[in-house]
Design brief:
The chain is an alpha/beta fold. The protein contains 30 helices and 34 strands. The chain is 32% helix and 18% strand. The chain binds ligand MGD (2 copies), iron/sulfur cluster and molybdenum atom.
Length: 895
């Protein structure tokens, strides 16, 4: 890594979630980069979460793709780009424009996205460009367009702070939008009247600040919000002036919702009647209400209906576009919003214009001076890969996403890619599951190297800036697309020389023949000079030419983007979720964990983040576990008709009976069989085409292995023994969980793990069925391997630090074999605070010694005092410990 400018602090934006925090990156003389939150950035005001704080640890060149490759061999850019252009041109000529496709991502920058969309829709002449946002935001987009006539997010982050009631629907804000969560947490502390309701089938870390948690049955949100709409009407809590002046369709929506029968709603949602009634009253009585929603809403076969059922309640109360009020879709990826602005979805045009609108098509074609313009929707992600499998797509370019992991029915996606005649993959890493399927591999510039803009959840555009020179021959995504477009014969339209030029054109198009008819207008930036682009400070749209930004919110006074400028209520019928069958009796829910990002290609590199949760798992309710004869730490198989995974059982009442939760993150790079996308059914919402990744009927069974192992190793073994494994980094090496069938041959295992020529110390209790082995080279521990018939009982946090000790005394060496730390060095326990590496045992100890609040735990241990991402977990731990303490006397009495 070469830092572009030593010691010069660069203002940039975090490449992870849609909060879009400002980051100060300062390259250090030793090649490292110091990372801090930008105090001037209006998204985070200096805060960063655990992932943002660890950005400096993810910049190593290990596993980076540094050179183009064609057919598995290093090539020059000339050869690679010529090949891509020729194959795309050939396919278009022979099979027509719809025989080619781009599959891109909310993690490329607006400038990258703009040129990709322009090339496909305006020059190739197909709308076959879709994006992983289809798996993420498509239902919000569809819901917004139905209700508002445009894909407009009406509110701002500040609304969450100004509200008196914040309803979080299908959003684990504490883990997935941590800095926004912290802003909410701080606002609640400052305004004790503020109430927070969490609507999620699972008890998540976000529940730590909830006054009410509604653990509804999966996919029953429409019943709950239809009921709320009816309640608002029946309790005279609607805003009739707003309804009459600014909306259409109220009567139909009310009729569809039916009367507010709490008993029926309780049955449909599985909630307690009094909880439903309490929630409805809170909403009816609180003018300043914000409803935040995320993947528990979008990722559903009824996702668009969920969005509209929520929006209906805001339209009915006129609580939209005013401070502290509104529906608020929290976006996932750093540039989910930018992708929508340029029209990166297969059913959108550019600058929030509609593909199905002939006027809009004319505007865009005229502006682009393009030979053609796509005039019908392209293939949406799930259909696109189905078409690939059917041989209909002859050339496919995948950029900044890993569909063999993140799409539903992911094994079928893998098979489809094998048969596709020509696949291009642009990525930053070699270790991504999709990379092996590429005919041409293009090395992309990564965060810190690339330059451009992103838009966060509140429509705020910020710069990502380069502070590291391109390593090897990597090039940014926009450059790759522009070079291919030129080779396809479109030199003039793709004469861009830098991101600034692309941004200017994008801004100009947003204003072109707009006259206030379209929400997305950043015309004020259309003449931005290169220098001004370099120094651009974060701004929120709209920013029309000549109009200073008066208001950062939309729709307080109507002015929607429908033909009559009125909003639409959408009548949403509740459809009971499909029944689970006998063969697949559980509902699989999937999602995220705090310290990992998607397929772990970046966050999986840092031991500090991996330590929080180091193995893929399935949350299972204790009663289900009992019935399945599954104990904590057993391995379980979760399978559907589409595929299967083997993961560790995490027995907990955080999930309800009949439901299991598996994280989406672990890929073939990190585990033997944990790609949960392979299990997820490819069923989609009829309006948005977004898959229902939170609801798949599955079977769960115990995977009884004959032996289990845990190891810490200096090097990653080239082949891992056993039928199950999960690997991750620890300081100085790797930690490995593994297990297998049959009688293990210890010598062979050690050999396979690459532990040769070491001085071994072993203990072996054949009768009890365990053995332990530690190997040294020149007095430095190289590996510690623990084998057992049962899941291995070793203090993991302690063991994960063993490779940091240089030399060990004789006594310390024997201690390694004991599998637990000496009494004077207690095991930290499962990691809670990743900044200071504080575990739950340490927190419990502090609580026992009197630290009875998150603040006091922080004062004692520093835990939670840096990025603060773990504060909700400390709170939950505190609640549990306090509950245990107060439960004890009861037990004594009962005895
Ligand atoms: N740590 C971390 N943060 C991230 C990401 C990451 O990978 N890691 N990814 C980013 C991205 S791209 C996204 S899209 C966001 C996602 O952010 P979130 O949407 O907050 O995250 P998820 O964990 O996918 O799902 C949220 C919740 O939906 C709940 N849910 C499931 N089914 C239902 C249902 O039927 N109704 C309701 N009401 N809830 C339901 C799940 O139990 C889960 O707790 O996170 C962003 N932030
Ligand atoms: N079961 C299940 N599946 C899901 C979800 C779920 O909740 N459950 N969530 C869905 C959602 S919301 C999302 S957003 C997706 C995310 O899923 P993906 O998009 O597949 O996941 P990422 O790991 O973010 O993939 C990004 C890839 O781009 C590479 N990359 C990073 N930066 C750059 C760059 O600048 N240029 C290029 N060319 N490459 C780059 C990374 O190395 C990585 O390989 O998963 C979806 N799939
Ligand atoms: S909340 Fe965390 S992951 Fe999201 S943008 Fe901010 S620092 Fe990055
Ligand atoms: Mo996402």
């Amino acid at each position: 890594m070469t830092a572009a400018n030593h010691d010069k602090t660069v203002k940039t934006t975090c490449p992870y979630c849609g909060v879009g925090c400002g980051v100060l990156a300062t390259p250090q003389p030793d090649g490292s980069v110091s990372i801090k939150g930008d105090p001037d950035h209006p998204a985070n005001f200096g805060r960063l979460c655990s992932k943002g704080s660890a950005l400096g640890e993810t910049l190593s060149l290990q596993d980076r793709l540094l050179y183009p490759e064609v057919d598995g061999k290093r090539s020059s850019w000339e050869t690679a780009l010529d090949r891509v252009a020729a194959r795309f041109s050939d396919a278009v000529r022979e099979h027509g424009p719809d025989s080619v496709a781009f599959y891109v991502s909310g993690q490329i920058l607006t400038e990258d996205y703009y040129v990709a969309n322009k090339l496909m829709k305006g020059f190739i002449g197909s709308a076959n460009i879709d994006t992983n946002s289809r798996l993420c935001m498509a239902s919000s987009v569809a819901g917004h367009r139905k209700a508002f006539g445009a894909d407009t997010v009406p509110g701002t982050y500040e609304d969450l702070e100004l509200a008196d009631l914040v309803v979080l629907v299908g959003s684990n804000l504490a883990w997935c939008h941590p800095v926004l969560f912290q802003r909410l947490e701080a606002a609640k502390a400052a305004n004790p009247a503020m109430r927070i309701v969490v609507i999620d089938p699972r008890q998540t870390a976000t529940c730590a600040i909830a006054d009410l948690h509604l653990a509804l049955k999966p996919d029953t949100d429409v019943a709950l919000f239809n009921g709320l709409l009816a309640f608002l009407a029946e309790s005279y809590s609607t805003n009739d002036r707003y309804i009459n002046n600014f909306t259409e369709g109220f009567e139909e929506a009310i009729q569809q919702a039916g009367p507010c029968e709490i008993g029926r709603i309780a049955e449909e949602t599985g909630l307690q009647r009094q909880d439903i009634a309490l929630f409805y009253k809170m909403v009816a009585q609180t003018e300043k209400t914000v409803t935040v929603y995320s993947q528990g809403v979008n990722q559903s076969v009824v996702g668009t209906d969920k969005v509209n059922a929520i929006i209906n309640t805001h339209l009915a109360t006129g609580r939209i576009g005013r401070p502290g009020m509104g529906p608020f879709s929290a976006t996932g990826q750093p540039n989910a919003m930018g992708g929508r602005e340029v029209g990166g979805l297969a059913n959108m045009l550019a600058a929030h214009m509609a593909l199905e609108n002939p006027d809009h098509r004319e505007i865009v074609q005229e502006f682009w001076q393009s030979p053609v313009i796509a005039d019908r929707q392209g293939l949406k992600a799930v259909d696109l890969f189905e078409a690939v499998g059917q041989g209909k797509i002859k050339a496919l370019w995948i950029m900044a996403t890993s569909p063999v992991d993140s799409l539903p029915d992911a094994d079928a996606v893998r098979e489809a890619l094998k048969t596709c005649p020509f696949v291009v993959v642009s990525d930053v890493t070699r270790s991504a599951d999709t990379v092996p399927f590429a005919d041409v591999l293009l090395p992309a510039a990564a965060w810190g190297e690339k330059d451009g803009t992103v838009t966060n959840s509140e429509r705020r555009v910020s710069r990502q800036r380069q502070f590291i020179e391109f390593p090897g021959e990597v090039r940014p995504d926009w450059w790759q697309i522009v070079e291919v477009a030129r080779r396809m014969g479109y030199e003039e339209a793709f004469a861009f020389e830098n991101p600034a030029g692309i941004f200017r054109e994008h801004a100009e198009l947003s204003a072109y023949r707009n006259d206030g008819r379209r929400d997305f207008d950043i015309g004020a930036y259309k003449d931005l000079a290169g220098d001004a682009y370099q120094t651009l400070t974060p701004f929120q749209w709209p920013r029309a030419v000549g109009k200073p930004q008066a208001e950062s919110r939309f729709f307080a006074d109507g002015n929607y983007y429908t033909p009559d400028r009125k909003a639409r209520f959408v009548a949403t019928a509740f459809k009971a979720p499909r029944k689970t069958e006998r063969a697949y009796p559980y509902v699989l829910n999937t999602g995220r964990v705090r310290d990992q990002w998607h397929t772990m290609t970046r966050t999986g590199k840092t031991s500090r983040l991996v330590a929080h949760i180091a193995e893929p798992f399935a949350e299972i309710h204790p009663d289900d576990a009992a019935e399945l004869q599954v104990s904590a730490a057993d391995l379980v198989e979760v399978k559907s008709p589409h595929g299967r995974v083997t993961v560790r059982a995490l027995v907990t009442d955080r999930v309800s009976m009949g439901e299991v939760y598996v994280p989406m993150h672990w890929t073939d790079q990190f585990a033997s069989c944990a790609r949960i996308g392979a299990v997820v059914a490819p069923e989609t919402d009829p309006f948005s085409g977004q898959p229902g990744s939170k609801f798949t009927p599955v079977a769960v069974s115990k995977r009884q292995m004959d032996w289990h192992g845990f190891a810490v190793l200096r090097e990653r073994p080239s082949e891992i023994p056993g039928s199950y494994w999960a690997i991750g980094p620890v300081p100085g090496g790797y930690r490995l969980e593994f297990a297998g069938f049959g009688e293990p041959d210890t010598n062979e295992l050690l050999q396979l793990l690459g532990c040769t020529d070491l001085d071994w110390l072993s203990v072996d209790d054949g009768s009890a069925g365990w053995s332990r082995h530690a190997g040294w080279k020149e007095d430095v521990l190289q590996s510690a391997i623990f084998l057992s018939r049962q899941p291995v009982e070793v203090a993991r946090q302690w063991a994960s630090e063993l490779l940091t000790d240089d030399t060990m005394s004789k006594q310390e060496r024997f201690q390694v074999l004991a599998g637990r730390p000496p009494a004077d060095r207690p095991d930290a326990g499962a990691l809670v605070c990743s900044c200071f590496q504080i575990g739950c045992n340490q927190i419990s100890e502090a609580v026992k010694n009197g630290a009875d609040s998150v603040q006091k735990v922080g004062a004692e241990l520093k835990a939670g005092t840096n990025c603060g991402s773990c504060r909700s977990e400390i709170q939950s731990l505190l609640d549990d410990l306090m509950k245990e303490a107060t439960d004890e006397p009861d037990l004594a009495q009962a005895g």
